[in-house]
Amino acid sequence: MRLFVAVVPPPPALSQLQSAVAGLHSLPDSGRLRWADPATWHFTLAFLGEVDEAVLPDLTERLGRAAHRHPAHELRLAGGGRFGDRVLWAGADGDVATLSALARSTGAAARRAGVPVDESRPFHAHLTLARAGGGVALRPFAEALSDFRGSPWTAERLELVRSRLPGSGVPGERPRYETVRSWELGG
Ligand code: 2AM
């Protein structure tokens, strides 16, 4: 199964971001972006890819231990940015150092369970809002979010999420996510 590990902001924080993102839909080319469903917005801490079911007991044990080693921490959704003209994202500020440390531990836990998580790219806290196929400049979208600052919230849980890719072949259909396990931070 295809898995990733994430922190999901609470509904009030997501609604604030949704209001800010609503303003972006009036920008030119907005209709050419593939917008992520706000119900699935999250910060990916580690992308595990295809994982054999046999690995799950060891993986979940190790992820649970990683979650317990890091405290709950305060974050805000803030600002926006882009990875080239491919991905538009919302950022975080606050105790991003703890979130980053949690992401590193999560990757290490997965690797110890035999899941080859890429450690070459440093963690960059981002919540993907939209993807572009090419030919759309994302800079105006990122700039429109630069002043956004949501209210503080506490990241309290680490979630192991299963991603089911669309099988229908219908263009624009998005993956479905389902939380397989979650752990309280600090615990
Ligand atoms: P993103 O947050 O940067 O878009 C589920 O696919 C999640 O895993 C997405 O949120 C996606 O990241 C993240 N992810 C990281 N690396 C990925 C990869 N190589 N393929 C697909 N998703 C990846």
Characterize the structure shown.
With 187 residues, the chain is an alpha+beta fold. It has one domain: Cyclic phosphodiesterase (Cyclic Phosphodiesterase, Chain: A), CATH 3.90.1140. 26% of the residues lie in helices and 32% in strands. The protein contains four helices and nine strands, in the order E-H-E-E-H-E-E-H-E-H-E-E-E. A five-stranded antiparallel beta sheet has the order 2-6-5-4-7. A four-stranded antiparallel beta sheet has the order 3-1-8-9. Helix 2 (56-68) packs antiparallel against helix 3. The model has no long low-confidence stretch (mean pLDDT 96). It binds adenosine-2'-monophosphate. Residues 4, 44, 47, 128, 163 line the site of adenosine-2'-monophosphate.
Main attributes?
alpha+beta; Cyclic Phosphodiesterase, Chain: A; four-stranded antiparallel sheet; 4 helices; 9 strands; binds adenosine-2'-monophosphate
